[in-house]
Amino acid sequence: MPRINAVSFREYTHIESICRIVRSAGFDGLEVSRPPFYDRLTTPETRTAFLNWSRSIGLSLYGFDCWVEVEPFTAFDATLDEFQRAVDFATALDLGLLISHDTWAHTNGARSPVDVLNTNVRLFRQVADLTAAAGLTLVFEPHPDTLSMDNAWCIDFCDAVADGRPSGSVGILFDTCHYGVGQPDTYLQAIEQLGTRIRHVHFSDGDCRTYALHLPLGDGCLDLAGATAALKQVGFSGTLTCDMYNYPMLEDGARRNVEPIQAVERELGLVS
């Protein structure tokens, strides 16, 4: 089931258009994003209507890139409240997976990595309580400007949030583009170090220098065969989404990505 993320199409304002473009490109799965879906589907009735309509056109929904502004230092309770709303949205659409990130570098300011770790753990253990109660998996997506791009910090963070919870209910989202920029020389070794903590993958090519430029497979310089082999080596059995975020020719790139993404899924044993 090749899946693509809707956040790549965030500048398309009509959710029906996004879904039809995705289907016509050859994808039958969609990872839902905050803009424009969360902003448009604001009532239980509209959410139910969208869920039924998406199924009617053969589009399966999985994952919510909730993009909550994580600000636990000065707005802890407000941040937690927004996560509750995100959980409610993901539950209504039966999305199964909630995607977030730890605090951005500009939010961390001059705080020490240990202080940032402790505060993020305190917040996200409560978020994990919310996702567990809703039957959702919680994953964190490291970016070049988050402390989780450091493998040791990321492991400490993920393990502390996951402590005492069922195996696989909390994990890491490995984005090949972000790791290519954040760890241009060691992104394959990062897969080995993170191991089974990787529960979800955003798969794209990249140029190892441009922030968040997710390229069609084969258009960049990432060792994607090596990344696939490394994921296979650590026994990855989670879920995978094609990412086209910031690529300027989305519809062409999406069409070109379908078959390569399917090949990766087959190699990893993610399809029957």
Considering the chains and any ligands shown, give keywords for the structure.
14% strand, 272 residues, alpha/beta, globular, TIM Barrel
In short:
With 272 residues, the chain is an alpha/beta fold.
Question: Can you put this structure into words, describing what you see?
Answer:
The chain is globular. Helix 6 packs across helix 7. It has one domain (3-268): Divalent-metal-dependent TIM barrel enzymes (TIM Barrel), CATH 3.20.20. It has helices spanning 15-25, 34-40, 44-56, 76-92, 105-108, 113-134, 151-162, 176-182, 187-194, 224-233, 250-268; strands at 3-5, 29-33, 60-65, 97-100, 137-140, 170-175, 198-203, 239-242. The protein is an alpha/beta fold. 48% of the residues lie in helices and 14% in strands. An eight-stranded parallel beta sheet has the order 1-2-3-4-5-6-7-8.
Strand share of the residues?
5-15%
Average pLDDT confidence is 97
String of helices and strands: EHEHHEHEHHEHEHHEHEH
Secondary-structure class: alpha/beta
Give unreliable regions as ranges. Answer: none
The proportion of residues forming helix, as a percent range, comes to: 40-55%
Identify the CATH homologous superfamily.
Divalent-metal-dependent TIM barrel enzymes
**Rounded Rg:** 18 Å
Widest sheet, order of strands: 1-2-3-4-5-6-7-8
CATH architecture: Alpha-Beta Barrel
Please tally the β strands and state the result. Answer: 8
Tell me the CATH topology: TIM Barrel
Question: What is the makeup of the main sheet?
Answer: 8 strands, parallel
Distance between the termini: 10 Å
The count of helical stretches stands at 11
- Kindly provide the name of the CATH class: Alpha Beta
